[in-house]
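Deliverable D2.4 — example input (structure tokens):
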């Protein structure tokens, strides 16, 4: 994380040790969730704002539940019901949220770089909760935690795992953050996508040659430990990036036939929200090796870890 003030803007803000420590801390906070009263009185004096300029279900609610479990007070800002609709600027909005006494701003915006800009304007830490096609670091961290838990990985050493990331890489901030995190932790990462759904290599922020690319999902499926499906982002897709949903399903959709050739120990992940019947067939989405529900639960523990670490600089209570 950046030193002068602990922002979490990009996954590259974190060293490998910081990722490991956050995963350890998340596993501690997951234990808190199992208590009869799933709260710890550690951030009673703190106020956290979720400032979402773009819709969200999981990320916003997960950060809010996490902050409340740490006993912080939570202020929710939603652009659609705010003075943004009267023309107030993002800068004035951010300054107002800070001046309301907030200790941490958690920001989502449809344009890449807005959380980074806000971090320059305000003197409190900022967490990027998803900016355009750019980054979604808390999603990548909760996915690292989920993979660690599922495969009983010690010390976040992913070197024995092959992870296939499938679909609309071009428009996916989740893909950018996850690819970077998984490569950093030593996983073999294979990206499965049509060329029209891939960004230029330099936009993936990983060393050259550290990721393999293929268009053929069927070829890689039998060897994957983790199949990570991405949402088809119709709201961000350029015209003609893909002939149509039917062709996408044929080439990259996970149906029962494809699921059957996967390793018995393999798991299926997706950041949500899912398009049932597109990235994943409706019945397959409910298979026991689909970890989507676990990802949501683990998101609370990881976001508790992120908020706690940013506001206390500590990895233990
Ligand atoms: N995974 C994710 O970012 O979901 P939301 O858009 O619902 O927050």
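Example output (designed residues):
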């Amino acid at each position: 994380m950046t030193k002068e003030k602990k922002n979490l803007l990009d996954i590259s803000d974190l060293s490998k040790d910081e990722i490991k420590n956050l995963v350890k801390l998340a596993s501690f906070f997951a234990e808190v969730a199992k208590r009869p009263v799933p709260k710890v009185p550690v951030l009673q004096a703190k106020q956290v704002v979720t400032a979402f300029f773009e819709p969200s279900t999981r990320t916003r609610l997960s950060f809010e539940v996490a902050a409340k479990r740490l006993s912080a007070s939570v202020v929710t800002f939603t652009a659609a019901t705010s003075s943004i609709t009267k023309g107030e600027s993002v800068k004035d909005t951010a300054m107002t949220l800070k001046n309301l006494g907030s200790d941490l701003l958690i920001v989502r915006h449809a344009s890449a770089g807005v959380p980074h800009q806000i971090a320059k304007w305000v003197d409190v830490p900022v967490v990027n909760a998803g900016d355009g096609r750019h980054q979604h670091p808390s999603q990548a961290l909760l996915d690292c935690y989920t993979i660690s838990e599922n495969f009983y990985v010690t010390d976040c050493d992913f070197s024995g795992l092959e992870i296939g990331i499938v679909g609309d890489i071009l428009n996916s901030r989740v893909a950018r953050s996850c690819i970077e995190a998984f490569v950093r932790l030593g996983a073999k990462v294979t990206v499965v996508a049509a060329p029209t759904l891939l960004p230029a290599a330099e936009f993936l922020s990983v060393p050259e040659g550290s990721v393999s690319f293929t268009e053929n999902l069927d070829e890689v499926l039998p060897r994957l430990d983790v199949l990570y499906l991405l949402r088809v982002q119709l709201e961000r897709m350029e015209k003609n990036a893909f002939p149509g949903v039917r062709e996408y399903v044929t080439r990259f959709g996970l149906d029962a036939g494809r699921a059957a050739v996967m390793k018995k120990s393999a798991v299926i992940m997706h950041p949500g929200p899912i398009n049932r019947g597109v990235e994943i067939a409706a019945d397959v989405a409910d298979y026991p090796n689909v970890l989507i529900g676990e990802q949501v639960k683990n998101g609370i523990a990881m976001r508790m870890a992120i908020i706690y670490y940013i506001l206390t600089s500590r990895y233990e209570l």
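The mean pLDDT is 94.
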